[in-house]
Amino acid sequence: MQAILAVTLPFFALILCGYLAAQRGVLAEAAIPGLYGFVLFFALPCLLFRFGFSMPLASLLNPAVLSVYSACALIVVTLTICLSLSTRVQMKDAAFGALVAAFPNTGFMGVPLLVALLGEAAAGPVICTILVDLLLTSSLCIALARGHDAGAGNRGQALWQALRGALSNPLPWSIALGLSAAALGLTLPGPLASVVKMLADAASPVALFTIGAVLWRAGQHAHSRTPAALYLPVALIKLLVHPALVMGLGMAAQGLGAPLSHFQLVVLTLAAALPSASNVSLLAERYGADNGRVARIILASTVLAFGSFSTLAWWLSAKVS
Questions:
Q1: Cα(175)–Cα(111) distance, rounded to whole angstroms?
Q2: Total domains present in the chain
């Protein structure tokens, strides 16, 4: 357990540093969107480009990994919406709650953390989860939220607009660019390669610091005060139900002969056990959902994940070897 905490503690400590820096005014609130933009459009794309360039296509676009994780995402979204809908939580808010229940923080947190825990081979399955969450999970949940406002006749259009929004995210394109460069045998010129390396090396610490700052900002811009009964169960779905479902369905797929290795299943399970993606609070704010509830789900899942994720990683660490 000590070896696991030696890896996970610094990651969560950097998130806390970002939260405290924003809370105490060391990091101005006006600077947080710029910091987020640096990670999203510069540092993290360079990190994913390097993984795309250095890893075989089959490990980044594994059909078994994509299928198991996609099925679990759809089940979690459906389950969370069914459990959340009430007179207090309407469809738009239930859809965004489902998004934070099914969308782990794999981009800003999961890639560097799981690579640090399990080695660079973990990057392939984690990148598969990023593609599913950006293109399927987020598009579906945003379409459900917007379709509720637009009415039944415009739900198809809402889904298309949500998918277009997902395709504007630079992360899938950076992965595709790295794969394409590797397939064509291209190499970056020395100075450009140095720039990419410097930005990629900055991705992990700055992304973690940014998560903390974004969590503080989300709390400041919350439109409502949400009782624990409306957000804590969703955080527990994220941290407990989602990874358990991934492991169970993955083992069932293995039993049916799916080409899913034990290592890949461990990586997928740990990815699902990560806290909710912090950027969903920004999406909820943009689309007029109850971002107070969303922010509290994300904050609760991030605080609780230090214990739950570290414990699961410790339990699974012996099984990897």
A1: 13
A2: 1
* Amino acid at site 47: L
List the CATH number of the domain containing 148. 1.20.1530.20
Using only the alpha carbons of the chain, give its radius of gyration. 19
pTM of the model: 0.89
- Which pLDDT score is estimated for 158? 62
What's the CA gap between 301 and 275, in Å, rounded? 5
Domain limits for position 235? 2-320
Q: What distance in Å separates the CA atoms of residue 65 and residue 207, rounded to the nearest whole number? A: 25
User: Rounded to an integer, what distance in angstroms lies between the CA atom of residue 242 and that of residue 62?
Assistant: 20
252's tokens: 């069932």
* CA-based nearest residue to 196, from 211, 209, 181, 218: 181
CA atoms within 13 A on the CB side of 58: 2
C-alpha–C-alpha distance, residues 321 and 317, integer Å = 7
| Confidence band for 156, pLDDT divided at 50, 70 and 90 | low
What are the residues whose beta carbons fall under 8 Å from the beta carbon of 58, sequence distance 6 or more? Answer: none
